[in-house]
UniProtKB/TrEMBL annotation:
It is found in: Cell membrane. The keyword Cell cycle does not apply. It is a multi-pass membrane protein. This is P-type ATPase A domain-containing protein. It comes from Bowdeniella nasicola. InterPro entries: ATPase_P-typ_cyto_dom_N, ATPase_P-typ_P_site, ATPase_P-typ_TM_dom_sf, ATPase_P-typ_transduc_dom_A_sf, ATPase_P-type_domA, HAD-like_sf, HAD_sf, P_typ_ATPase. Keywords: Membrane, Translocase, Transmembrane, Transmembrane helix. The keyword Magnesium does not apply. It comes from the Bacteria. One of its GO terms (molecular function) is ATP binding. Residues 108-207 form the P-type ATPase A domain.
Length: 800
């Protein structure tokens, strides 16, 4: 039983050493051997703002807005709003991440007590120098690495750094680490590592660098935008040159003023090629998911992290503070007959001081059983003493003892206690008699770490979803294995290994990990190496933890999950923080990630189809010397009604389709052929419109191409808005589609709206052309997209 013991040295003895002289202290300060840890600067707010404003696409869009405002009409420049919103979202997200990382701190000790030149006084912890004598007492966080010089029965909780749940008793000559806490006794240590060289600050420095979360959605979109950046400017210049040719050549266009129209049409080609709303929609979708999860008790610290759990296939779990609450709890009291009220009173008297975790656990257990405070007869209590390993309480003529089984029990009874302890539990013996030499076993108090109430059910769910669970703990392998079994890891019968036997080579390490479910004695560096090794085999790795010993692994994991009661440094580097340690929120995080991935795949098809046909039209009209078929406002109408507005609604809709790899390939499998169909349909209508058959005006030709593109694009929207009917009734998706069609009809029918949209109605023959080509293109796109959507696993059962 861990305890506060009677000091073996007096305060006077602890200050017997004079410590460093003033000259020695000054020498170390000048040499930089102080406990001041440098803070990495990182990017300033101005740097972040500059990086988000001065991007290739912002430059292209901003230039396009300025050109349109100078030579065209303001109605054609409304696309510039997206530029501003995108910049704001990216800037705010990075500034928020910068502030979180600035909070990374393992050492919280504000002051320390040192002996220098024979005097003992308090100084700021940052002013400790190498070689200082530092006094430690109950409740202190150790501010430096050091060697114990004098000891007063000190016990240290190292779980925050090592994961070891049992307190560590220290003797003269033993090492202590910064960041750990004194839970019993006192000591005098000599500082051997300070500032950036201390263990805690070394760990802290490794987790302070900013690293964006890997998002398949964001990466896929960035891939497309990067490739587009290579062709947009050349294509825009090509379109402008081609449009000048169609307006009488460069000299003729300059003389007639038609060069302005050519420039605006070139801008239209640029606007059509950039899926500017897709980035905005992705950020918005992540933000909506983050807000929903916050209401459930999960804080997303980097928005794309909400996607990652949908992709995680391996979840690494720390034990102390993660599978367990970090508190001790009485599991049961093994007694031949129930304890009498006097026996319970004696047990309460021995533990009411709550001097340590064992005493507090027993006191809590008794408090629940007695429904509050218990009035007990007068008891003469002798507290636990480390030399005899038990404490006593006398009530009347009976002496009760609580302590180590090997001291209080017979050999056969000790064996039973050892068997229980082998399960990773702590066993305390409760005995009674007339004197210390006449004690008889009365009960075994079995104590273990308190399991998180929702852990077992949540892990069962994650296992059913195909996620592998791997416990990596700094604690004893047997203890970690026992706890893992109790929460249902590997069906309650996990394979247990010792991390001290692990190979260091990544490939061999991954192979070894395949044969275990639980690893004990894992160091912080090994946790990080395990995560990196798993990622090297293309696993998407999540990591949960609460201690500083988990921080390195949390940072390297694809998704770091921290407990709210964990260390500040751990929460700062995690992508997801579970408030009150509620594992039951993880299924909701998984569901949100799946919804984001599945819905963004749907709407990405719409955006990239537009990009595809815009590129094809730019190339084709330049090669054929055709006038570009759309004004910027026409592309804004097509994009808003067939993509933008409905995409915002579809992106946040329920969707339970499981994650599948290959997001970008599946999107392009639909977007490329659909874009080709729309481009061919538009070119066909434009070619016939300006031929001798129909003799359309320029304005009628642009209206015909716009309406043809709308018919096909709205058909694509209809397919990716499924289901439109459920149980014989229209769904809200049908209403959304009907609204978009209604707006198109209103623009065509209402003169002011038609003039704003620059749509001149064609002749009846023109309507026949629009409907004929539009319906044919719509039929091809419907067949193509429907077949692909079903192959991707989307059906009425996954979409509500």
């Amino acid at each position: 039983m861990e305890n506060v013991t009677t000091p073996t040295t007096t305060p006077e003895q602890l200050t017997a050493d004079n410590g460093l002289t003033a000259a020695e202290v000054q020498q170390r300060i000048e040499a930089g051997q102080t406990n001041r840890a440098p803070t990495p600067r990182g990017r300033s707010t101005l740097d972040i703002l500059r990086a988000n404003i001065f991007t290739v696409f912002n430059a292209i869009l901003a230039t396009a807005v300025v050109i349109v405002l100078l030579v065209g009409q303001w109605q054609d420049a409304v696309f510039g709003i997206v530029l501003i919103v995108n910049t704001l979202i990216g800037t705010i997200a990075e500034i928020r991440a910068k502030r979180v990382l600035a909070d990374v701190a393992i050492l919280d000790a504000p002051s320390a007590r040192v002996t220098r030149g024979g005097d003992t006084y308090d100084i700021a912890a940052k002013d400790i120098v190498l070689g200082d004598l530092v006094h430690l007492s109950l409740g202190d966080q150790i501010p430096v690495d050091g060697i114990v010089r004098q000891v007063g029965g000190i016990s240290i909780d190292e779980s925050i750094l090592t994961g070891e749940s049992d307190p560590q008793k220290k003797a003269v000559g033993d090492s202590v680490m910064s960041g750990t806490s004194v839970i019993a006794g006192s000591a005098l240590i000599q500082a051997t590592a300070v500032g950036p060289d201390s263990y805690a600050n070394t760990l802290g420095a490794q987790v302070k660098s900013y690293r964006k979360v890997h998002s398949e959605l964001a990466d896929g979109i960035d891939y497309i935008l990067t490739r587009l950046s290579w062709v947009i400017v050349p294509l825009a210049l090509l379109v402008m040159w081609a449009q000048l040719r169609t307006h009488g050549g460069i000299d003729g266009a300059l003389e007639s003023g038609r060069w302005k129209v050519a420039v605006v049409l070139g801008v239209a080609a640029v606007v059509g090629m950039i899926p500017q709303g897709l980035v905005l929609l992705t950020s918005m979708n992540f933000a909506v998911a983050g807000a929903k999860l916050a209401r459930r008790g999960a804080i997303i610290q980097e928005l794309p992290a909400v996607e990652v759990l949908a992709r995680v296939d391996t979840l690494c779990l720390d034990k102390t503070g993660t599978l367990t609450t970090g508190n001790m709890a009485v599991r049961r009291i093994d007694a031949a007959t129930p304890l009498s009220s006097e026996e319970e009173a004696a047990l309460a008297a021995l533990c009411c001081d709550r001097a340590n975790a064992t005493a507090a656990a027993i006191d809590d257990y008794l408090a629940v059983g007695r429904g509050g405070e218990m009035r007990t007869p007068e008891a003469e209590v002798s507290p636990f003493n480390s030399s005899r390993k038990y404490g006593t309480a006398r009530i009347g003529s009976t002496l009760y003892a609580l302590g180590a089984p090997d001291v209080l029990l017979r050999d056969d009874e000790v064996e039973a206690a050892r068997e229980i302890a082998a399960e990773g539990l702590r066993v305390v013996a409760f005995a009674a008699g007339t004197s210390e030499h006449d004690l008889t076993s009365r009960a075994l108090v079995v104590i273990g770490e308190e399991l998180r109430s929702d852990a077992s059910e949540t892990f069962d769910y994650l296992h059913e979803q195909g996620i592998r669970l791997l416990v990596i703990s700094g604690d004893h392998a047997a203890t970690a294995g026992a706890v893992a079994g109790q929460v249902g890891i590997a069906g309650g019968n996990p394979r247990v290994g010792d991390a001290r036997e692990l190979p260091s080579e990544p490939a061999a390490l991954v192979d070894r990990l395949e044969g275990v479910d639980v690893l004990g004695r894992v160091t912080p560096e090994q946790k990080r190496d395990i995560v990196l090794a798993l990622k090297s085999r293309e696993h998407v790795v999540g990591m949960t933890g609460d201690g500083v010993n988990d921080a390195l692994a949390l940072k390297e994991a694809d998704l770091g999950i921290a407990m709210d009661n964990g260390a500040r440094a751990t929460k700062a580097v995690a992508r997801l923080v579970l408030l009150s340690g509620k594992f039951s929120v993880l299924p909701h995080v998984l569901a949100e990630g799946r919804r984001v991935m599945a819905n963004m795949e749907r709407v990405s098809v719409l955006f990239l189809t537009k990009t595809m046909y815009a590129i094809l039209l730019a190339v084709a009209t330049s090669g054929l010397a055709f006038m570009y078929p759309f004004l910027p406002r026409h592309l804004t109408i097509i994009g808003s009604l067939s993509i933008g507005i409905p995409a915002f609604a579809l992106a946040i809709a329920p969707n339970t389709r499981r994650y599948r790899e290959g997001f970008l390939k599946r999107v392009l499998r639909v977007a490329v052929p659909a874009g080709i169909v729309i481009a061919l349909a538009v070119l066909l209508v434009q070619g016939l419109a300006i031929s001798g058959i129909f003799r359309f005006t320029i304005e009628q030709s642009q209206a015909a191409t716009t309406l043809t593109a709308l018919i096909i694009a709205l058909t694509l929207l209809a397919n990716f808005s499924q289901p439109l009917m459920r149980d014989g009734k229209p769904t809200w998706r049908a209403g959304l589609l009907a609204s978009m069609i209604g707006i198109v009809l209103a623009i065509v029918a209402i003169p002011p709206l038609r003039r704003f949209a620059a749509l001149e109605l064609p002749t009846p023959a023109g309507w026949a052309l629009i409907l004929g080509v539009g319906v044919l293109g719509a039929a091809i796109v419907w067949r193509l997209s429907h077949r692909t959507r079903v192959r991707n696993g989307e059906d009425a059962h996954t979409i509500e």
